[in-house]
Amino acid sequence: MHGSPSERIAQAVARELGVPVLPLLAPAPRRPGMRRQAELSGEERLSNPIRFQASPHALGGARLILVDDFMTSGRTLREAALTLRSAGSGEVHVFCLGVRLSRQRFESPRAGISERDLELAHDLIERA
After folding, report:
1. Hey, which of 7, 22, 88, 105 would disulfide with 59, CB 3.0 to 4.6 Å?
2. b/e for 88-101, b at 16 or more Cβ within 10 A?
3. Topology classification of domain 5-127
4. What letter does residue 25 receive in the DSSP assignment?
């Protein structure tokens, strides 16, 4: 993630909040032929397996801010947050610079997004 848009955003957020940036996640190795989420259509994103590996940092219930440049389906952020929680973090908050939403796609039962999260995302867009 060195120099990626997400890393640059994380650095700016960290400076503003006075907190460190910790590289706590790495994508699990992809099988040959698997494409990145960014390369997939909306429908393909919903069925593509997403896996992360947590770093060996001792999280000890720490509250974390997970930073990404864009959220499209929310699945990548959800899987990342679940990985961090499984590794021992406390609350995981998400900061995204941009959100692309399609209500119809997000109301699909396969999307795995709660009604509350959907409402929060729509509120965020309306305030922007």
Report:
1. 88
2. ebeebebebeeeeb
3. Rossmann fold (3.40.50)
4. E
In single-letter form, the type of residue at position 27 comes to P
Q: What's the rounded Cα separation, in Å, for the pair 36 and 90?
A: 28
Give the containing element (helix H, strand E) for 71.
strand 64-71
Both tokens of 51, joined, read 């896996």
Structure pTM? 0.67
What are the angstrom distances between the C-alpha of 15 and each of 26, 76, 105?
22, 25, 35
Q: Tell me phi and psi for residue 117, to 5 degrees.
A: -65, -40
- Token readout for 42 is 């909306």
Domain boundaries, the chain: 5-127
